[in-house]
Amino acid sequence: MLIAGYKEFLPFVQEENTDETARETAISKMKTNTRHRVKKQINRIRYQFLPLASRSNVPIYCLDSSDPSEWSTKVLEPALSVSHAFLSGSPLPRPVDYYDRADELSTPRRKRDLSERWNECEICGYRGKSMLISGGEAGWVEHLQGSRHRHRLGKREKRAARAAEEARAQLGAAAEGDTWSQEFRDGSMVLEDND
């Protein structure tokens, strides 16, 4: 059942428990579960409903129902007037006319753009995967100046220099005159893999 408080109070009611601690435990669980449901609903509204409504240019009316004694003036009357305007085809009132924080609440909040906060370092990666560096520009600068990055950069430069030296040595040895080495240096030799 999805009735608020039902599953929390069910054991308390079934056992006909008069113990005050069991009652307090049920109340505490109900409050916790209610907060979780409210948070889920707010996130659903904020990240699913509001972006969809803002793309469709649908006005969103926020009504303040925090004070039950003013419910008819702050909730019922504004809801009826908006409904009447909509059904009669009249221009809809501005949402701010009913609640001063309506613009703030009805504007969809954007989830943070992680591309501004993360950078990829191919040098410090592992097995062909880049390493993600957090902290935006400041974190990236700190990473580039760090000992791990400088050490790996030095190793990479040494490997590249060694590979270039070996290639020069092979070309130098091949330059002593055979025709195969001449074809290799000219780029006219094509090696084929017969596997």
Give a verbal description of the structure.
This protein is mainly alpha-helical. The protein folds into 3 domains: 1-57; 59-111, no CATH class; 114-178. 58% of the residues lie in helices and 8% in strands. The chain contains 7 helices and 2 strands. The chain has helices at residues 6-14, 20-55, 71-88, 102-106, 136-145, 147-174, 179-186, and strands at residues 118-126, 129-134. It has a two-stranded antiparallel ribbon. The radius of gyration is 35 Å and the shape is elongated. Residues 190-195 have low confidence and may be disordered.
Strand content: 5-15%
Please list the strands of the largest sheet in the order they lie side by side: 1-2
Mean pLDDT: 77
Low-confidence stretches: 190-195
Can you describe this structure in just a few lines?
By secondary structure, the protein is mostly helical. It contains seven helices and two strands; from the N terminus they run ααααββααα.
Secondary-structure topology with pairs:
Elements: H1 6-14, H2 20-55, H3 71-88, H4 102-106, E1 118-126, E2 129-134, H5 136-145, H6 147-174, H7 179-186
Antiparallel strand pairs: 1-2
